Fold Glycosyltransferase.
Amino acid sequence: MSILIATAGSRGDVAPYTGLGVALRRAGYDVVVATTDTFAPMVRDAGLGFRRLPADTRGHAGVRSNRDVMRAAASFTAELGQGFADAVSEGTDLLLLSTTTAPLGWHIGEATGIPSLGVYLQPTAPTGDFPPVVTGARSLGRLGNRTAGRFALRMADRIYGEAVTGLRERLRLPPLSAAAMRARQEGTGWPVLHGFGTTLVPRPADWRPGLEVVGPWWPHHDAGERLPSELEDFLGAGPRPVLVGFGSMAAGDGERLSELAVRALRRAGLRGILQSGNAGLAAEGDDVLTVGDVPHALLFPRLAAVVHHAGAGTSAAALRAAVPSVAVPVTADQPFWAGRLAHIGAAPAPVPFTTLTADGLAGALGRVVGDEAYARAAKKAARHLAVEDGAARVVEAVRRLTRA
């Protein structure tokens, strides 16, 4: 049986699906990941098939506001829709669709008859429990949260509107709006498995049947992979350091952020590792080291804390390693995850990227490293995550779906 996992976006939107793909392959399925060219090496290194989705996220890495996100998302989905149909070949038996690809993948399923399953990294269904992830972390009350959630879905439908129209024309399907297709899927109880831990986001009781929170699926890395020797030497040369990294965020701001991070670390009396990322962080010194991409699963358990942009994957990885965070959210769903980390006590109050200073970061670092309560909360979350096997739950769901 052949499964196509379709996902697109930043590294954090793609990397977890390599681990999910490997779990499905071990269960006996042929697995192909359809994503953008940037992540072809990551997919192939996991031993999975690769199929190209025609869009480029590199030009969107410098977004700083929700308005920027909306503009970048509309451009991205238009590119994505132009060639999405080419990624689904004859012989595909099941589509696994991410948050970003589902609004297009539904139409592929209609045209081909291929069944599909949602595998989301973010909660998108309206609920009274929390506001939409794209609006930040401040609750509007149960009624306000649900109303805002419905509005957020309407905005997403607008973003996908042009791409959906073009895709349906190419597939020779009758016109149908993005909103109408979403309503159709909701009405049929289309199943969605959410790949995050219940310790961060318990399943809302007011969600419809078919929406489940199953636990994270983690990026794949080879069992024999080791940290670079220079990094091992640095880790062994003194107290546990703090990692500072902003992932795919803050492109072009590397020099300022690097200087700010080093000043903050030194004021807090901490050693540091700067992860270059799209920002291009870099610094030298006996108390600081610069690294590129390294597996979170190998590095994070060796740290005192992680300063990060609060992407869904990085937030979960810090908890998995039982390490507290200092969250510096930039945009999109990051303020939501930053708020969840603070809510469970594994991080102090978020430090918004727009107000980040060396003194503010030094103060947050002093609190998170000096107060054992943050580490205890992170360890408690890690124990919960250790028994939530999201990939296994997806494999079970796939088996049920294919037997039906």
The domain at 2-216+388-403 is CATH 3.40.50.2000 (Rossmann fold). The longest helix spans residues 141-170. Residues 59-63 have pLDDT under 50 and may be disordered. The CA atoms of residues 15 and 42 lie 8 Å apart.
